[in-house]
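Task: sequence design from structure.
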């Protein structure tokens, strides 16, 4: 079964946790100094916020799957969309170990498809200088996003 995923960058994590906890009538499933996540069942959403972005607002959308074969299906759909696909494979990010890939829509919105395999105690296990301040979608430029090509082979995380 799939779960819709939304990741938003926020300026003030504690203020945003308080707001979304009231809005969802639920406490986050995970809270860290720079990140919080709600795993809602009605509607079925993985809603994450973090302070790791360049500016507040939408970072990316996606689908989290429960089974590896569902990820294979989503990858085939993404490939059929005639856009550049960034396949990260096994990776760590957002305090989790996952298998994932990315595709960017014609407007430049990144879509993440992932299967979470487990939890880790850090945001990600390998942080490179270029990635330290950015999360979670692959880097693209406006012109290459419009053409459907990712410009970076080093995605950020989540």
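Answer:
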């Amino acid at each position: 079964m799939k779960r819709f995923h939304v990741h938003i960058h926020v300026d003030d994590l504690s203020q945003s946790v308080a707001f979304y906890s009231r809005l969802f009538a639920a406490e986050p499933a995970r809270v860290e100094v720079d990140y919080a996540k709600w795993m809602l069942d009605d509607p079925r959403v993985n809603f994450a916020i973090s302070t790791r972005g360049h500016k507040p607002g939408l970072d990316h959308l996606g689908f989290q799957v429960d089974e590896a074969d569902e990820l294979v299906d989503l990858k085939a759909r993404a490939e059929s969309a005639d856009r550049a696909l960034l396949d990260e494979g096994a990776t760590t990010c957002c305090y989790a170990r996952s298998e994932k890939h990315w595709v960017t829509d014609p407007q430049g919105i990144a879509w993440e498809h992932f299967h979470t395999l487990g939890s880790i105690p850090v945001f990600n296990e390998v942080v490179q200088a270029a990635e330290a301040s950015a999360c979670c979608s692959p880097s693209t430029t406006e012109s290459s996003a419009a053409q459907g090509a990712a410009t970076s082979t080093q995605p950020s995380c989540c």
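The longest strand covers residues 110-119.
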